[in-house]
Target: Accessory protein NosL
Amino acid sequence: MCIKSLRLICIFLIVGFINCGEVHPEKLIVGEMKCSHCSMNIVDMRFHTQIITYKGKRYHFDAIECMNQFQKDKQLRIEKIWVTNYLDQNEFLLKEKATIIQSSKIRSPMGAGFAAFKTYEDSIPFQN
Model:
């Protein structure tokens, strides 16, 4: 009986430690969440961005410019920032590894024309 209980406890601890590792971005369903800055529904997933703080609080944004302004206003301790790859709305990129451009060729939800790309080469056709 004691061995069964010990095994069960070990299994729960192992699963718990595995799930305490890397933090990942959340996938959203179009329109299910509002931007943490401007309160617009997030509907164009090419511009969806996320912040997670060191305390584990997650914020979602409909555009990179909303995330930038929110960051300035709130002065949070941020663990990670993810931006969506403009060319693949199912791919999140760490902000520091992404190429972010501002272009009049891009129609972002707030109109500033910011978009994130996996590589600089991917962004070339969209640059002014």
Remarks:
- The longest strand covers residues 78-85.
